[in-house]
Design goal:
single chain, 6 strands, HotDog_dom_sf, MaoC-like_dom, Fatty_acid_synthase, MaoC family dehydratase
Amino acid sequence: MTAVGDQLPPLQLRVTRADLVRYAGASGDFNPIHWSDRVATGVGLPGVIAHGMLTMALAGRIVTDWAGGPAAVRSYGVRFTRPVVVPDDDEGALVEVTGKVSGLTASEDGRHIAKVSITATFDGKTVLGRAVAEVAVDEDLPTLA
């Protein structure tokens, strides 16, 4: 059974400028800080940055991968603490995501709800604060000891 303290398998995700273009098209967010170095640096940013909601969605994959899909996620919230700066190259920015079961409660339908604390870092610094998902679990899920 899933237990408090269990570590989810970590994720390493690359975000490229091409990802930003695709996300802009899907979301309708064409703010030039997400594609123009000139505009981004002109407003005081270190360069083009990933959309916050894209970063949040990518970090959320740690729980959807672990739980077997998005239907198990009951809630998910974050605070944006730092931007992910995406260079104009083929490698992009590396976002590293870890998760830990920080709570476990029984739900009304007999399943368990795992509270998962998520850490997402870029360039060694946390980019999402208070990142927590609540996930319905009803069987053993793979974790790291």
